[in-house]
Write a structure and sequence with these properties.
Blueprint (H helix, E strand, L loop, with lengths): L10 E3 L7 H31 L6 H28 L5 E3 H34 L4 H4 L2 H6 L1
Antiparallel strand pairs: 1-2
Helix pairs in contact: 1-2, 2-3
GO molecular function, one term: olfactory receptor activity
Subcellular location: Membrane
InterPro entries: GPCR_Rhodpsn, GPCR_Rhodpsn_7TM, Olfact_rcpt, Olfactory_Receptors
Length: 144
């Protein structure tokens, strides 16, 4: 009887990013600055839309959600990438890798749904202006 391969993967080793310590530090600083700008920008948009009473239209609500999803999406992989640039042993566990993949797919799918919904808003405003206020209100955006 043939013996099946019963090897189990416990971790993945990252290779090929770069071997130069100077380049790793440069990439660490670059990715850290870009990540910080992304986080601050997205959270600023969310806080601005929440606190400003003039920004409570359905499109503003969807934009705040899109910014929050952008914050979450960038926070899934970037911290692990930047910290691994400074480590000698660049590994990720199998569970950690699968968790990252699941989160990236979840947040990217959520982002696509939000973008489709955001494109539906101007369609309703232009093509069916009399129905706009009954179709695109905040409660329906929350539940759909």
């Amino acid at each position: 009887m043939e013996e099946a391969n019963r090897s189990v993967v416990h971790e993945f080793i990252f290779q090929g990013l770069c071997n130069s310590k100077e380049l790793q530090i440069f990439l660490f600083l670059s990715f850290s600055i870009l990540y910080l700008m992304t986080v601050v920008g997205n959270l600023f948009v969310v806080l601005l839309i929440i606190t400003d009473p003039h920004l409570h239209s359905p499109m503003d609500f969807l934009l705040a959600n899109l910014s929050f999803v952008g914050f979450c999406l960038s926070s899934v992989t970037t911290p692990k990438l930047t910290t691994d640039l400074l480590k000698d042993k660049k590994t990720i566990s199998f569970g950690g890798c699968m968790s990252q993949i699941l989160c990236v797919h979840f947040f990217a799918g959520n982002e696509m749904v939000l973008l489709v919904t955001m494109s539906y808003d101007p369609y309703m405003a232009i093509c069916k202006p009399l129905h706009y206020s009954s179709v695109m209100d905040r409660q329906k955006c929350i539940w759909h």
